[in-house]
Amino acid sequence: MLSIIGIAPHPPIIIPEIGRGEIKKAQKTVDGMKLLSSHMKEKGPELTVIITPHGKVLPEGPAVLADKQSSGNFGQFGFPGIQLEMESDQQLIELLVEESSKEPVKPALLGNSGQASFGRNNLDHGVLVPLYYLKKAGINTPGMYVGVGFQPYDLLYRFGSILRRAIEKRGLPTAVVASGDLSHRLIPGAPAGYNPQGAVFDQQLVELIRNGRVKDILNLDQQLVEEAGECGLRSIIIALGMLDHNFRSEIISYEGPFGVGYLVAALHPENS
Is the overall model pTM greater than 0.90, yes or no? Predict the structure, then answer.
């Protein structure tokens, strides 16, 4: 049963061992991640699903790690000693495959049971950052890693509804994290360069989420999206497909101290 969905950014700088003194510049986000993780802990999840935009992207559909055990570290950012693991719930994966069998979009399985295996360190930072906070909050459940695809928004939204059906059939309280940063172009010197449309996009998306305007999110101006240089929209769209318009939004925090928009939010399913 779907209990809660969190929208979470994934800057490694909010990991205390990595951010050190700089972490104070993103204190709103750090506090927001702690509060979101606390909200999730209160729901008593027995499964955790994390949707990331930084996994392997395949034309068949969103990637799902099928290995029973996956791990990753922050070696890419100079901290290989910070390592986290995630156990996959094989029954949930099987249900997702079953539910998508007659659908226009299907999961692309990766790992021992899928198309390719890319070693034990296969969790990207889009998973690792929120997973760090979840574990700190005491959430140590099995679950599922889901990537995004470049399918049209309506198909990603449809995939979200398929994922929801699989979760409901699994019958366990489930917390979902839609991992993703917003615009990477908020200020001069930002990682992807500066574009004034970045702030416009972030403000627009935050307000649309706040007011539950799903249709408008699916129909965001594509030039605005492109100019914003975001990475989280597709994760969010899959998450919204799991809710089918029936949810309450809680905007926990938003800031962009390093030129990248960090949104932390909780989406509460109806009757949750």
Answer: yes
